[in-house]
Amino acid sequence: MTLGVVLVLASVSLAASASFTVAEVKPHYGCQSPAGQERVRQYISNLTAAGTGIISLLEMEFALPQPSGYAAFGAACGKHFDPAVVLFDEAQFSMVSTIGATLAGNYSAVPYLGGAPQAVGKRAYSMCVSDPTARFGPDGIYPVGSRPYSGAVLKHLHSGRELCVLTGTFAHCSNNWTEQFVTDIEQGCGDRQLLIVADTNAGCVVPTLKSDSQEWSMNKILAKHGRLSWGPCHDPGQHSQPTCCNDTPDFPYPRYWYDRTAICRGGRVADFKVEAGFVCGDSRAEHLFTRATIELGELNDKASPYCLDHSQCASMGVLPNASFLGSQMLPVDGKCCPTSSGDANLPCCSS
Fold it and tell me: Is 263 within 8 Å of 4 (Cβ atoms)?
């Protein structure tokens, strides 16, 4: 099972609070039947008709006609060129710059969108979150496999705020992130607000390799890789329904909490939803697609109700000893000042 990740990073700004919708679509490379592929295309068409701001396409390995009003960027990883691609609504966002070797500007050159994986520029096909030649598990019996990422800095036109949007894939068992991946994000995105939409492949109890994915908040994942500076994050998908996977024939239903939409360094994720059924339908390892609303909030804004906009509330989610402590301590809906259950503020709001 692969995972896909989307990071959306927003710059510190005095602009008004901004919101937009995000979707993750992961049909998996097993979606090969014409009927299943057409169902996925129709699902994406419905998303664009609804004005979804950012659509992450993970392991979607078939052509998609360019939706009216949408542009794309993407890259791939590994010998099969597994893709990580984003569609964005040009009425809501404009392109500022790309991250690493991400391809943009020529829709047909973005991996698979034009019907083929090949693209100009070899570097764009080595955009790997983890080393695809590495192995993990007892005696190294499992290959890490392709874990792609791509990213771009976009400007949110309504608010004027810059967003660094990254989509990609994490490896199972918290396999080490490549120096290239970390450097591309930190140099390309800087200290901007961060939104992660990811198939995290979170959780792995060695040596059984049993998944404990629901215990892994985005803060815990970042801490594991020494990237607490990318947070703190609000990650409601940890408390929603599992998304992975259509492991037919033995387990044709989701068992793992892999796919997440998490915003970091301010704001919150609202209305995180997991689709009730598989869209491609006949794709082994297809994930349930997700949708959410991103509320960017205001960093250091005393009037904001969002936990991450208050430094003391936000710090509750990144205590050094926490496994998933942060998710237990902070309200699942990301509201602290006041909470959504009443008029009371949490004690951290006063500071």
Answer: no
